[in-house]
Write a structure and sequence with these properties.
The protein has about 475 residues and is of the alpha/beta class. It contains 18 helices and 19 strands.
């Protein structure tokens, strides 16, 4: 299908709690978006926050048919809203990473003979060998993770091969668990068999043009038969696309968990980070770091030191100088991923561990500086080099707090920007739909050059390098001491 000014692009986002979709025009401006909330729109599946947590507390699943029914509802809502599906030149999508769906034997034939006058969820009711599939929150496969790491020579070796050590939520351990504990289900699964590699197919870049849209969607919703389906990707790579991350950029999401991701051509493997293929450049990589102790830890210090007030928190933060009089604090309410520690740790200006600081204002600055020092240190450990061209793109709830962003700018000695558009993963899917058609003729940067630029939030202070570069080294030494104690 040739693209023209009237062409549109459709992006889906199958996230944990909802299914979202957006339609953009040829200039990538939003024309229409809609959402289906799993809990409220599909109460018959009895999910909480989109999932079912089982009695053991480790098994977390999603009813697969709920996702299918959500797609039925979403496409109907788009049509009612006036979306002309015949103008959609390509579609793509994203989903919660590590969720897995198990198709029953015979599913391929069933998909080939869908009837356009019936809902998808009605026709696919018996198409899955497992009705409730594991999600990214599942942590029931610790034994399988250990087996996988042992068979290749340890977690470091597995990270060198795949970009990550084994995690319970990953699809590999989940398939292994299915084979070991639900053999009948496994044997009845069309896309998974002893010959797993052949059944799963050859991996392709996530901007690959897979083929034309199914005849079902043409006849039921009026899609153009030439509409192309571009390979889907995970939610984090889709966010990287939606934020239009460039070579020297770092994206920092400040939420319940803080995440950091960036693009590198030659990343270094670290045990607790994730290295993925770039979703827009087959010769580059995406690096992802996740820090469990994010906004909830900042809020804990706010509550104990600033009477639960962000206004007072910011006043205390700004009443202390950069570097916090030489004090350093690291706070881990829950077991952290990077580094693997838990608890509160404080050092004074003499580099001596202390049980508490002398003032609340010191505690407030310590939690913010400590979190950002960790992010810079681990980004550098992966091979990222700060330069005059480095930009920090901040998202998430705390990106609205300019005083916190100023500390981020100072620690990284880089300007911090915020984005106007939210739902970066959903937008990334729509951008990828167009890029999948255009990538042979235009670079991703050129394709997205007319999108609104990120808004400058703050610039680093003049003494930022002098203060924080030595503090990064202090952080590394501090963490080494803490982990050796453990």
């Amino acid at each position: 299908m040739s693209t023209c000014d009237e062409s549109t692009y459709l992006g889906f986002d199958f996230s944990t709690q909802q299914l979202k979709a957006v339609v953009v025009n040829n200039n990538l401006n939003i024309l229409q978006e809609t959402v289906v909330q799993y809990d409220s729109d599909l109460p018959e599946f009895r999910t909480t926050s989109g999932v079912t947590v089982h009695k053991d507390g480790h098994t977390v699943t999603v009813p697969v048919l709920m996702l299918v029914k959500a797609l039925d509802i979403l496409l109907d809502r788009l049509k009612i809203a006036g979306v002309d599906f015949s103008k959609v030149a390509a579609l793509s999508g994203t989903a919660q990473q590590h969720g897995s769906v198990y198709w029953q034997k015979g599913a391929y034939e069933k998909l080939q003979s869908l009837q356009p006058n019936r809902f998808l969820h009605d026709q696919l009711r018996n198409a899955f060998s497992l009705a409730d599939s594991p999600t990214w929150q599942d942590s029931s496969t610790r034994m399988q993770c250990q087996e996988l790491e042992n068979v290749v020579g340890g977690p470091q070796k597995l990270a060198e091969i795949t970009g990550s050590r084994a995690y319970e939520r990953f699809t590999g351990p989940q398939i292994m668990n299915m084979y070991q504990t639900k053999r009948a289900v496994y044997n009845n699964t069309e896309a998974v068999a002893p010959d797993v590699e052949a059944k799963l197919g050859t991996p392709v870049p996530s901007y690959t043009n897979i083929g034309p849209v199914s005849k079902f969607y043409v006849e039921r919703f009026g899609f153009n038969p030439e509409c192309r389906v571009i390979a889907f990707t995970g939610d984090n790579p889709a966010s990287l696309i939606g934020m239009c991350l460039k070579k020297d950029d770092i994206a920092v999401s400040l939420g319940t968990s803080d995440t950091l991701f960036l693009c590198l051509s030659q990343p270094k493997v670290i045990l607790d980070g994730h290295i993925l293929s770039s979703p827009v450049d087959k010769d580059a990589y995406m690096v992802l770091l996740c820090f469990k102790n994010g906004s909830l830890t900042r809020e804990r210090i706010r509550d104990t030191c600033a009477e639960g007030s962000w206004k007072l928190f910011n006043e205390l933060l700004n009443s202390t100088p950069r570097g916090d009089f030489g004090n350093m604090g690291l706070y881990y309410d829950t077991q952290e991923i990077i580094p693997f520690v838990k608890g509160d740790y404080r050092r004074n200006k003499a580099n001596v561990e202390v049980p508490r600081f002398s003032g609340k204002e010191i505690e407030v600055r310590a939690v913010v500086e400590g979190q950002f020092l960790a992010k810079r240190a681990h980004a550098e450990d992966l091979g990222f080099t700060l330069s005059k061209n480095t930009r920090i793109l901040a998202t998430g709830g705390a990106s609205n707090n300019l005083d916190i962003l100023q500390v981020l700018a100072d620690v990284f000695n880089s300007s911090v920007y915020t984005l106007e558009a939210s739902n970066s993963a959903m937008l990334g899917a729509a951008y990828q739909a167009k890029y999948g058609l255009m990538h042979q003729d235009i670079s991703f940067a050129d394709m997205t050059q007319n999108l609104p630029a990120p808004r400058l939030a703050c610039t680093p202070s003049k003494d930022a390098t002098e203060i924080y570069t030595p503090m990064v080294e202090r952080y590394r030494a501090f963490i080494k001491t803490i982990t050796n104690q453990g």
